[in-house]
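Changelog note: in this version the structure field was regenerated for every chain. One regenerated record is shown below for reference.
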Amino acid sequence: MENKFDFKKYVDYKVYSVTTIKKGYGFRVVLKFADDTFVTQQHAGFKTKKEANAGRDEVVGQLHHGTYIVYGKIKVADFMEYWLEDVMKKRIADNTYNSYKNAVYNYISPGIGKMYMSTLNQGYIRKLYNSVTDQSENVARLVKTVMNTAMEYAKNKNVIAVNCAEGVMLPKKVKKKAYRILKIDVQKTLTVLQVAQLIDASKETPIYMQILFAVLMGLRRGEINGLKYSDVDYINRTLKIQRQLGKVPNSKAEDVLPKMLTKQEIPTKTESSNREVPIPDFVFEAILEQRRIYEKNRRRRKREFWDLDYICCSTYGNPRSKSYHHKYYKELLKAQGLPDIHFHQLRNTYTTILLKNDFNIKGISNMLGHSKEIISADIYGDTQEIIEDCLYAIEPFIESVMPKCGRGEYYDYSDMEDIENLAEEYLGAA
């Protein structure tokens, strides 16, 4: 589908005085855009001059506050198709796109697609949710997520004045998911002693840095592989997470260099995944050492070396794929007699260590890159025993990772917005 819409933000405007238009009253609005183009819109149909002036005052207020509807004559089906195909398709993973596509073409467009965006209100959206819920509760949640996200985009593009989907809840028969819950099976995480054992044993493997970033900073695999030395603030000892490596949606092998299909730079999982986190002293020293090795390899292999600045890379500077670590990691666990847990569960291990040491959930969620999170882990019954289990080995890392204000604070979740408003937080894995 061709990009049929060219949504532009107006940079200036002029509202003319009320005048007679046909058999009534009205006024004109001229919008100026950044490319020096103009659009004239007419507001007519007022029976009296007083009504027209009141309408003019309202429009002036909307223009001033940025809520003026510039593109009101767009049908819901057309807008949703544009939003899905031209905006979201290139930003989201294939499976997420397919979920969105199902919601748009099978439920949203058949339900309210013939309406104009400017006439949408909470009543129509509530009616849509009710009809979908009668068919499937899971699909209803998906439709709600898509509508919230699409309408927010429409508001930002001056297609609608307000996000009319915001605040519209699903029918009571659907169990409310106020927050996304990250459930952790503590049987599939490592103890503090085992963490220390894993770190020590991994020093002689090619995945040493991956292990450190996962178990001592709670980073995702894709985030780890996307880290660059330029992301490190060597003065304040912080690390910016602002990209990951993976497959660009809908890309093909012929579109990229050989063996680079799954090593492309893509945005982080969600907006909240873009974060800056403190680096534990132990990890910081490891980064410095890895940087020395990187510079040495760059000097030795001038012609063959890919100077892409990745922290986790081959001796030739090549980025690592998401699956690179698998072989070494599994062999490492087996050799050390450690539980056969998935690499992603090192991130869960990091989380449980902080929970067991009484760090508040808000702070942990921020470190993990979630905007709002309730973390569920059955760890509190034997907390004291666990803390005493070689706590000395990991406590320095905990103290340096978490902000000082993160300990012992009570966090009230009651004023949080519904997490379902955030599409990626709702649909993606932890």
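Spot check on this record: DSSP finds 15 helices and eleven strands in the chain. The first helix runs from residue 49 to 65.
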